Amino acid sequence: MEFEPVIGLEIHVELSTESKMFCGCRAEFGGEPNTRCCPVCMAHPGALPVANKKAIEYLARISLALNCNIPGRSIFHRKNYFYPDLPKGYQISQYDQPFAVNGQLGIIFDDEHISVGIERVHMEEDTAKNIHAGKSGRIAGALYSLIDFNRSGTPLVEIVTRPEIHSPQAARIFLNKLKNLLKYLDVSDCNMEEGSLRCDANVSVRPAGSGTLGVKTELKNMNSFKHLEKGLAKEIERQVAVLEFGGQVVQQTVHFDFASGEVTPMRSKEFAHDYRYFPEPDLVPLAASSSFVQKITADMPELPDERAKRYMADFNLPAYNAEVLTSSRELSDYFEATLAYFNDSRIVSNWLMGELLGYLNASGTELAGCLVTPAGLGGLLKMISSGEVSNAVGKEIFMEMCKTGGAAENIVAARGLTQISDAAELAAIAERVIAANPAQAEQFRAGKDKVLGFFVGQIMKETGGRANPQVTSRVLRDKLAG
Amino acid sequence: MTAAGGKGNLLRLSAIEALGLIGRQELTASALTGAYLAQINQHDNDVSAYLRLTATEAQLEAAAFEAAAGEGAPPLAGLPTAIKDVLVTEGVITTCASRMLENYNPIYTATSVLKLRQAGIVMLGKTNMDEFAMGSSTENSAFGPTRNPWDLGRVPGGSSGGSAAAVAAGEAIWALGSDTGGSIRQPAALCGVVGLKPTYGSVSRYGLVAFASSFDQVGPITKTVRDAALMLKYLVGKDANDSTSVEHPDEIALPEDRDLAGVRIGIVRELVGKGIDAEVMSVFNQAIKKMEAAGALVSEAGLPHVEYALPAYYILAPAEASANLARFDGVRYGLRAGGAHADVTEMYEETRSQGFGDEVKRRIMLGTYALSSGYYEAYYGQAQKVRTLVVQDFAAAFADADLLVLPTAPTTAFKLGEKTGDPLTMYKSDICTIPVNLAGLPAISIPAGLAGGLPVGLQLIGPAFSENLLLQAAHSAESVIGFDKVSPLVKQAD
Known about the structure:
heterodimer; A: 482 residues; alpha+beta; Arc Repressor Mutant, subunit A; 3 domains; 8-stranded mixed β-sheet; 3-stranded antiparallel β-sheet; 15 helices; 40% helix; B: 494 residues; alpha/beta; Amidase signature (AS) enzymes; 11-stranded mixed β-sheet; 17 helices
């Protein structure tokens, strides 16, 4: 039997606000343990939460970018459970009246446009960080546990999709698109390793074509895009195997172990909770007035789709180029920064998509870690366009810049790579090359124009690619005709 | 010192009278604080109003005010004040009368305490209470009960029993309390002093250890209504640390000497008579007659849903408490059960079993149950609806009355141990005060007279933020009632 996977994602985004969600402590990742905490985020007796305005603005930005509906009123709830990383014994979260509902985000998968529904977007706070001493790194069987409250109370936005994703690859593409969007919104570092972007998945399988949903499991602990795809594939495989052997999928939480690549159900004690949600009496309802929503809308940064459209309209770039260039905010910003130094969007676009991305992929480097700055690349492109160096040599120089971070001018000067455009100098070389290849010269004179390319190639070889192609062609025609 | 006289006279002074004498340099802050500390020394072994004294600091602070007396002195300079141990005080152990926090040394000070300290009060110490403010007799304190200064065999009421007893016994010129279902007003009534619960939101809750967050308010326990107004003036205001606090729309004014002409007062029909002791009703009715004679327009008022207020409160307040008290888990501060534990759950269980008393456990269980999956709508949801109806009832009643009036408590002070075996009877001590907390309204208890030698309280209730009206009427009523507020323990000091 063919099975169809059904996947819904629950994404947690730590916001990059200066301060925490309900107190004034610094929210930035890191710091000496327990140096960024106070009575509120340590839950001392009598301490009270006060909502962070900036975080609510970021939340509104995310909600609008995901095309959500923002009701005029939403409230905070307490989610009650005991755990050492949860100092109050409850997490302030949102429950049946979330900040935003009913959005969607489109992705392209298998050349098809898929719209993934967003069920809700809500605000909550992060927990502290437990470090369990012991082999497993989990609380069960730990010798002792240490708690770092620096993370306690960091603003966290939860985004829940509808179960409308049908393959691990599509899930990965969705998460990547969402991450890119969040980067454009400038609301989070979205660093999966540091935990500022986290993704859990609800997974079920059903016979292909069936309209009903199968029993789902909740897959946790996927801390990279690769792990998300791998974990989902494993869990789908596991569920299909259970069904094929006539068994039934049990609703439970499943832990992905990225070291072994296996999925293992968690002990029921670790997740069986009655959270006893009730409205948080220490906070007043959030009233998202239409003027507030209008202000956030007006202040929205340019989103990738809009930016791609602008590239097509203003720079006359093909749709494909525009999409690739805007696929990450860093690349897109890099593109625009380079244009400030070299204002030919077509040439810059081709260089980024060809040379720059090629180098990054081949070397496994992130753009952020690339040694060539937009100014550096702009300088190189100027030298090429002015004829100081040839295009071919330019590519070599670029590779050197990537490795050393040097400026194009310095590399050219040090290696004597200046383009030869002097007709007399090229004529002397042309004479030598024609003399050495009489048969080809005869063919050209007999009308086989294509042979000119052969002679240009020979001259390039002689000059190490430094010959100016235009001057070389003219000189060769002269000499061959003579 | 001649005008102020001996210790007995000093203990009779209201805060406003004392400030006047200090201002005219007829009394020093040190002498005043000294008189109260001496009374504490003499009687607190019997009364047990205090859990912890800060006598040395109090003397030093009073001496400092004395040195800097005159122009530029803060407005409440030198007033010896008792603070309920539910308000955190930096560097002074704050226990909430619980084993759980027996050695808890706060790292910050509650906004309400900070504001009074900035205004110049001298803190004498932290007062006893029912554990985590849960109770109506102060017998739920893990450190032993407080006794009523009018009769040491009886309870002072609760949960702010230590603060009320301290003021009645001449062990503080005034005190801070907190009121979730009557915890300021009921002990004030039983101890023959004045207790004001302000409108919810008018006084910051930051640093008030939470019992039921949507009910809790901090407020004054004083000898006179004018003192309550004076303290309130320095307590109110929006606090950036409490999202539920607001700026009071009015400047709090000191009541003036005038009659009650034209003040429409409604007696809540559903709550008088049934369930209230006859002798309490008799004192109450006499007081009402005096108010009527002073010009008050007295009529009946109705709160049709008020009989459901008590059950609704005992769903909602424990529900909030069950979450509020979850932070006492032995992980970061306070008690942690000793010995080796199989896992963290066992540590939680042993810590909370040892740290909490029976009443606290009972309310955590009640609240947890009411919020549990499958029961939420039937209990919490239903109780919220009752709360809305009670709010609407009050709004309707205030269409025909400026203020509502009730006895504060159904009985006078009862004997120690009399109700400890029967939680439901104990809960009924707050039958007249709880509806006010459901609606977040301001209410004040003033002494109405004695029944069998024990004080009876009269409660006036006003619309939200009507403190000025409420305090003015209470002051006028206080004058016409003419209660002799001096308790036997203060008379002994003469």
